[in-house]
Design a protein that fits this description.
With 329 residues, this protein is mainly α. The chain contains 14 helices and no strands. It has one domain.
């Protein structure tokens, strides 16, 4: 592995400094000229948006801090669950790059906020492996998905991930399935009851789908799709490489990657079904993509190919920033 990746493996303080520089490069233009998108989020999103006093500057700073926290957390739980071939800050770097790539991503979107709870839920689901009882894990994971869906309704689709986790990690138990349903319903029962008692309109789900997707799209569609295709090609290459590696790993790691694969499938299907939150719907994919790409970069023995792909990713990021400041496309 050449110098760029050696630095991330062996020099922790340099890695943190470089991560900070990457964050500043990606976010400074947005700090100077914040992107204003009026998302029609679910009730919890409306509360969070109100707490920012509807200031685009406060919202942008908060979005950046959330993304950094998510990048650090991803690094922690993939190391804890052995989903990375060796300890490295590359997952944090790639998550922050992918999660900031398009200008639309650099807003306090419902998707960004919801993805924090989905990350926590995934951590709990991965803890289920070989546990004697998982009642608390499954309830908490379902509860977190429900909270995420009260920020961005699209996140409710990730309840399927809980069902998949129960199939992958456990033998069938009606009790565990029932607990997962209870975890999803509790926040909705509470918020609907509160809205009825306070005399508010409780049909907030219908209001969420009130506006068309076009309202939230600020990036040229061809431009967005070209970048998306490039990222998908990288992930497919990574997936093929990792599949070979998984043949010699433990059952726990194989099941963990099965869950991540389903995460990608669910994200893609939900993207096609839900037409709110615009380009920000891609943020969910940043979670599994950063893990797959990190392992590819660490596993590959062809250092030249790795460097070329990484440089292409960096150049794509630079182009996106230049295009944001001085529109070309």
């Amino acid at each position: 592995m050449t110098l760029s990746f050696a630095l991330f493996r062996h020099n922790q303080s340099f890695t943190l400094a470089l991560l900070l520089l990457v964050i500043l490069f990606l976010w400074v233009p947005t700090f100077i000229n914040p992107i204003i998108i009026n998302y029609n989020g679910m009730p919890l999103y409306q509360i969070i948006n109100w707490l920012t006093m509807h200031s685009p500057y406060i919202a942008t700073i908060l979005a950046c801090l959330i993304l950094i926290a998510q990048g650090i957390y991803i690094n922690l739980w993939i190391n804890r669950h052995d989903l990375i071939i060796r300890s490295s800050y590359i997952p944090s770097l790639l998550y922050i790059i992918l999660g900031s790539l398009l200008p639309d991503f650099r807003t306090l979107s419902p998707t960004l906020l919801a993805s924090s709870f989905i990350l926590l839920a995934c951590d709990l689901l991965l803890n289920m492996y070989k546990q004697k009882t998982i009642d608390n894990l499954i309830f908490n994971a379902s509860f977190l998905i429900a909270i995420a869906s009260l920020i961005s309704f699209q996140a409710l689709f990730f309840y399927i991930l809980i069902i998949v986790a129960l199939i992958i990690f456990r033998s069938f138990s009606w009790r565990e399935w029932l607990i997962s349903i209870c975890g999803i319903l509790v926040p909705y029962i509470f918020i609907i009851t509160w809205k009825i008692v306070s005399g508010q309109d409780y049909n907030f789900i219908k209001l969420y789908f009130q506006f068309p997707d076009a309202v939230y799209v600020t990036t040229n569609t061809l431009y967005r799709n070209s970048i998306g295709c490039f990222i998908f090609i990288l992930v497919i290459i990574a997936y093929l490489k990792i599949n070979t590696y998984l043949n010699s790993t433990s059952v726990k790691i194989k099941k963990g990657y099965s869950l991540l694969t389903w995460f990608i499938i669910i994200s893609l299907v939900s993207f096609l079904i839900f037409h709110v939150d615009g380009n920000c719907r891609f943020i969910y994919l940043s979670i599994p993509f950063s893990i797959f790409l990190s392992n590819y970069f660490l596993l590959s023995t062809k250092s030249f190919m790795v460097e070329v792909l990484f440089i292409l990713l960096v150049l794509t990021t630079i182009f996106v920033q230049i295009n944001y400041l001085y529109p070309i496309i």
